[in-house]
Amino acid sequence: MTDVQTRPDAEITGADEPAAATGTVATRRVVLAGAGALGAGCLLAACGTDTSSSGTNGANGGDFTNDPAPAGSAGADAGGTGSTGKGSSGGGKTLVAAADVPEGGGVIKGDYVITQPQKGTYKAFSKICTHQGCPVSKVDGGVITCPCHNSTFSIEDGSPTGGPAKKALPETEIKVDGDNIVAA
Ligand code: FES
Q: 165: CA distance to ligand 1 center in Å?
């Protein structure tokens, strides 16, 4: 007892070390618990790397990862019918009236470019440029043109014919149903 009272301060501090160490452990536990809570928060908030393709416009200059939803699926909206409902009808959704698609040209409606390279032959492509994701803006002279960097695509098969785009516009299956071009 007297030992403790006569020990220098340094020793007394040393004697307290086990308590201090315990305090440190406790502090670490708190920190770890906090980290665990953060992790749970991350799970709940679904934080982490966003791997979706939306909003990634290829700032690196590479080809845009164009992954359009098939016509009539939940992600597609032809827009030509004024309907905002998505994914309810499946195939058969009207993309455009056949009469509105000029022979040797095409129109841009909703998410699609619908072309008529030869009389009575219709094609539909995603309107999203495969370069960096701009929507194409014009169909003229047998090509579909993107305004951002002037990539052009064939109205026959969507293949790139000029500019920086290297990939074809994805084609969508369609059919003629009466007076309309509809998703197959
Ligand atoms: S986004 Fe660059 S040409 Fe279309």
A: 6
70 CA → ligand 1 middle, Å = 21
**d(Cα 74, Cα 11) in Å, to the nearest integer?**
74
Residue 151 CA: nearest ligand 1 atom is 3
* pTM for this entry: 0.58
Q: What is the mean pLDDT of the chain?
A: 71
- Is residue 57's pLDDT more than 90? no
Alpha-carbon dihedral 74, 79, 82, 88, rounded to 10 degrees: -10
Structure tokens at 44: 């709940």
Structure tokens at 34: 């906090």
- The percentage of residues in the chain with a pLDDT greater than 90, rounded to a whole number, is 49
Residue linked to tokens 């960096």? 132
